[in-house]
Amino acid sequence: MEQYKRWMAAFLSVFVGLAAAVILLVVYVDPFFQYHAPLKWFPYVVDHQINQNPGMAKHMEYDSVILGSSMTVNFNTGWFRELLDLQTLKLSYSGAFPKDQANIMDVVFDSGHEVDAVFLGIDVITYSGGVDETKYPLPEYLYDDNIWNDIPYVLNKDVLLEYILRPLADPDKTDLATVYASWWTEEYYNKQWVMHNYVQPEKVGEEANPESYVENVKANMDANICPYIEQHPDTEFYVFYPPYSILFWNDVLRENHMEATMREYEYISERLFAYDNVRVFFFPNQEWIICNLDRYADYSHYHPDINRYMTECFASGECEVTEENLEEELEKMREIVAGYDFEELFSVEY
What we know:
This protein has one domain (2-345): Rossmann fold (3-Layer(aba) Sandwich), CATH 3.40.50.1110. Helix 10 packs parallel to helix 12. It has a six-stranded mixed β-sheet, with helices on both faces. Helix 3 (77-84) links the parallel strand 1 (64-68) and strand 2 (88-92). It is α/β, with parallel strands linked by helices. The N and C termini lie far apart (76 Å). The protein has 16 helices and six strands. The protein has helices at 2-29, 49-59, 77-84, 98-110, 124-127, 140-143, 151-154, 157-169, 191-197, 214-231, 246-255, 258-273, 287-290, 304-316, 326-339, 342-345, and strands at residues 64-68, 88-92, 117-121, 236-241, 278-282, 320-321.
């Protein structure tokens, strides 16, 4: 019995010692940036938006942020320094819902940073979703300031192996200027690739009521977007609508909700025009972009050159919409879709 007790005591001592060593190593390196800014010498791998964005928002150096879905991942933050003199941090969430934006804005605005600008991409297709809907389950222990619930982080096998030991063994430090950039290389941006992988939705016979999405959009704006604009009047919000390809609009036509979608753009924009610290940019009707499928890797994701163009517009004011010209820009969108020869597009085998 005495020998058994000694063996158990030794085992527990080793176990506790190893656990303590792992905790100290994770806290020291802090690959999810929960406790401190990055160590200058460590080759951090940043590839997990939901887990690493909150820590970056807490401890990276920045004066502006990029928020949005995968439509924002190909921005290079160096462009924002060059064109707008801003030190910008990219905090994208692929497939993001409005609640995802609210969750990370909570962290950003509670971090103590002076936030001069927020660049927020709005995907209208997600604003008709639920107010509390998120793309992925939220690891709340990474988004709060309670260190006592961090055990899933500091005693995590994947954190130790994939984010500390693997980078040490094979250093390939992530460039934060291009963090989360899409995997598509140049050869994927071509019409043949896009059309080969595109599947048309089934046709819907009954047209959606133009007001059918407004209730949910209103709820999302009320809960997840407008409060942050109102509470931070010294922060300038550059809100923009990404330019999906003409195939997105083919989906809209086949699913018969053209006017309901246009009403979403109209309603969100009208809400935003009420704020002095908001500028709205409308890119969906840039015909030279959306009708050239060689600029896309699928029906919605565009080449990084388009991200560069949008950054230039933020600096120059091109493509900005106001109360005075919104209806004109929406009408241009309708005309592009109505005049596009979809029959010819689908007459060729790819």
